[in-house]
Design brief:
The chain has 8 helices and 7 strands; from the N terminus they run βαβαβαβαβαβαααβ. About 40% of the residues are buried. The model has no long low-confidence stretch (mean pLDDT about 95). The chain has a single domain, classed as NAD(P)-binding Rossmann-like Domain (Rossmann fold). Bound molecules: 2-hydroxyethylsulfonic acid. 2-hydroxyethylsulfonic acid binds next to loops.
């Protein structure tokens, strides 16, 4: 019971799942996501103690009810990894789909806020904790057709900074991890299941893997108590910016 507790949103795939696999060696884990079956299957593969919370991060009530339903011995969450987030579409602003806009703002910004609001007060009370917001290079720069996705990640960047200010003095660390191109289901979701288009994003260079980012998260969590990594940009060696990628045969 002495192990620290980490809650990971969006643990059903990609960076969230890879992080769960890595942290399960040293943390008691609460894995969250919409797809319960995936979470249950992941739980079976993990070595440590694991709780599954299945909820839609867009649904405020469901977020609060799920987190409140945790058994008392799981309620003192030490590490919150706000990982859930997606891109929906890649369109010029004048051609954008408003359902995509809603999804990105609801999941990437409002969902992150709901989960944070449900968890941070007990960290404040206990004067300890670490919040890791998984942002993106899109939180630091804007690229053509990235408009609303970039806006949502810029909001995450602002929230990370705001959290660090407001929680200063409570012993709570706040970190932003800003990955560039990571080969996950990210592009499948962005391009709505168009696998060809999704695959092209990661072709002719070596993208990051979800494990690369998970290892970075683990590094950030393992810094000594007096050290916080505030903001960490992680890119494939072949990527210099959102729009500059050294693709071999192009
Ligand atoms: C994912 C990276 O460059 O596709 O957040 O926006 S990018």
């Amino acid at each position: 019971m002495s192990q620290r507790i980490a809650l990971i949103t969006g643990a059903t795939s990609g960076i969230g799942e890879a992080t769960a696999r890595l942290l399960s060696l040293n943390y008691r884990l609460i894995i969250c996501g919409r797809r319960e079956e995936r979470l249950e299957n992941l739980k079976k593969e993990l070595v440590g103690e694991v709780e599954v919370l299945s909820f839609d991060i867009r649904d405020k009530e469901s977020v609060f009810n799920s987190i409140a339903s945790l058994p008392v011995e799981w309620q003192e969450i030490d590490v919150l990894i706000n990982n859930a987030g997606n891109a929906h579409g890649l369109d010029f602003i004048h051609e954008g789909n408003m359902d995509d806009w809603d999804a990105m703002m609801d999941i990437n910004v409002k969902g992150l806020l709901y989960v944070s609001k449900a968890i941070i007060p007990q960290m404040v009370e206990r004067k300890m904790g670490h919040i890791v917001n998984i942002s993106s290079i899109a939180g630091l720069e804007v690229y053509p057709k990235g408009n609303v996705y970039c806006a949502s990640k810029h909001a995450v960047d602002a929230l990370t900074k705001g959290m660090r200010m407001d929680l200063n003095g409570f012993g709570i660390k706040v970190t932003s991890i800003d990955p560039g191109l990571v080969e996950t289901e990210f592009s499948e979701v962005r391009f709505k299941g168009n696998s060809e288009k999704a695959k092209q994003v990661y072709q002719n260079y070596t993208p990051l893997t979800a494990k690369d980012v998970a290892e970075t998260i683990e590094f950030v969590l393992n810094r000594p108590p007096h050290v916080v990594i505030g903001d960490l940009l992680i890119l494939p060696t072949d990527q210099a910016s959102s729009t500059i990628v050294n693709k071999k045969s192009e």
